[in-house]
Design a protein that fits this description.
Elements (H helix, E strand, L loop, with lengths): L2 H18 L9 E5 L8 H19 L9 E5 L6 H13 L6 E2 L4 H13 L4 E3 L14 E3 L4 H4 L1 H10 L5 E7 L3 H16 L3 E8 L7 H8 L5 E5 L2 H13 L5 E4 L9 H4 L7 E4 L8 H14 L5 H23 L7 H14 L1 E4 L2 E5 L5 E2 L4 E7 L6 E5 L2
Parallel strand pairs: 1-2, 1-3, 3-4, 4-5, 6-7, 6-8, 8-9
Antiparallel strand pairs: 10-14, 11-12, 12-13, 14-15
Helix pairs in contact: 2-12, 3-4, 12-13
The chain binds (3S)-3-methyl-2-oxopentanoic acid.
The site of (3S)-3-methyl-2-oxopentanoic acid has 12 residues, from loops.
Length: 391
């Protein structure tokens, strides 16, 4: 292109770009984004989140929505990787014009996608990101999912209560996943603090399905406890292969294994696995009772943690929106202003959720009080089972 022609082209480009920067208004119904994994192996976890968000949508809309204005959830699938999360977030921010985003499923994805929302000044509420450092990504990033540093130690204490003789621990973790790397750090610190010996640390990838070398190296150290930090598909296969190789001791699974969608993968070999929980179906509180009833009526079982956390994330946004809306009507207001006011309101509030009463510190870290440990009980069909909460 000749220099003059190029200058004209650039000038037109700038003009075109500027004409498109019209100030967006908040639509009715009010758009809230939900971007979790609806496809890929990560959907074993994400599918439970979709259900929680959908329950919250009808539950809170039937109770007046945002002071009489309905809200609508926009689902944009992230898949299981960073690129998928980035794309989904961009669609939420620029096309769906959402006031806030619930998502993504994995911390690994959050470290990539949250920055984009933060720069665009769009509040993000992580429904399941538990790695160290998530709220610190930016001012617009908070989470309802308590971090591994608080949740994970509960399962180690539970294992020692079941078998006080445990001394030797073998640790396995997915080294290509930010959450798994963070969680194994917590598990290893906890084990040491409890006076246990870590006999081996075995690494794998979340994409692996054959763990022959890690299993034989790990079991050669004669552990009395195995701790696995990975995701549902890889973690389920690893547990199965540990049992098939003859390991008889207790197994602790991390948060990435915290779903009944793992059961068809590990089958009867999942029986007895201990997993810490940031939610209990029987926790006190009228909202949990209502949520539990709605879930059980449809799914004929107890609600899982990821479903409760996704419900809580939507709830927090709706309740914060109600406060913003009381000060100045949200529907029809400048989208950019509402996003900023909503972020402040999210952080300022206290919420009675199915997870108990939660609030946030100024960085967006959740304050939650009660945690639990459940043990997997498989049914005779070897495909279904349940999480039995320990006392
Ligand atoms: C994280 C997690 C996931 C395993 C939950 C779905 O805790 O990535 O932080």
């Amino acid at each position: 292109m000749k220099p003059v022609t190029r200058k004209i082209a650039i000038a037109f480009g700038i003009l075109a770009a500027t004409t498109f920067v019209v100030a967006e208004k908040v639509a009715t119904p009010i758009a809230i984004g939900v971007s979790v994994a609806q496809t890929s192996n990560t959907a074993l976890l994400g599918r439970e989140q979709v259900i929680g968000a959908q329950i919250a949508e009808s539950f809170f809309n039937s109770r007046g929505g945002v002071n009489g204005t309905p809200f609508k959830l926009f689902f944009e699938d992230t898949g299981g990787d960073e690129a998928g999360a980035i794309n989904a977030f961009q669609t939420q921010i620029n096309k769906n014009n959402v006031v806030a985003i619930v998502g993504p499923t994995l911390s690994q994805q959050a470290f990539a996608a949250d920055k984009i929302a933060d720069r665009a000044k769009v509040p993000v509420l992580g429904p399941s990101n538990t790695a160290k450092g998530i709220p610190q990504i930016g001012d617009f990033i908070a989470r309802v999912s308590s971090p591994v540093s608080i949740v994970a130690p509960n399962s180690v204490r539970a294992a020692l209560k079941i078998n006080p003789e445990i001394k030797k621990v073998a640790v396995f973790y997915a080294q290509n996943d930010a959450f798994s790397t963070s969680e194994t750090g917590t598990f290893q610190e906890t084990a040491k603090a409890q006076g246990l010996e870590i006999t081996t640390v075995q690494r794998f990838q979340t994409t692996d399905s054959d763990f022959t070398s890690q299993v034989s190296a790990g079991l050669a150290t004669k552990p009395e406890l195995v701790i696995v930090s990975g995701l549902a598909a890889d973690g389920g296969n690893l547990i199965k292969q540990l049992r098939l190789a003859g390991y008889k001791g207790l197994i602790i699974g991390g948060n990435g294994l915290n779903t009944a969608n793992m059961f068809p993968v590990c089958q009867q070999y999942c029986d007895g696995v201990l997993i810490a929980q940031a939610y209990s179906p029987t926790a006190a509180g009228s909202l949990n009772a209502a949520f539990r009833t709605v879930y059980k009526n449809t799914y004929k079982k107890e609600p899982p943690q990821f479903t409760a956390q996704a419900f809580a994330a939507v709830q927090v946004i709706v309740e914060a929106l109600r406060r913003v809306d009381k000060a100045a009507k949200v529907s029809g207001a400048e989208l950019a202003d509402v996003r900023v006011a909503l972020n402040d309101a999210i952080l300022a509030g206290t919420y009675n959720t199915p997870l108990g009463t939660i609030s946030f510190d100024k960085e967006g870290e959740v304050n939650q009080k009660l945690f639990y440990v459940a043990q997997i009980k498989m049914n005779p069909d070897n495909k279904t089972g349940s999480f039995v909460y320990l006392k």
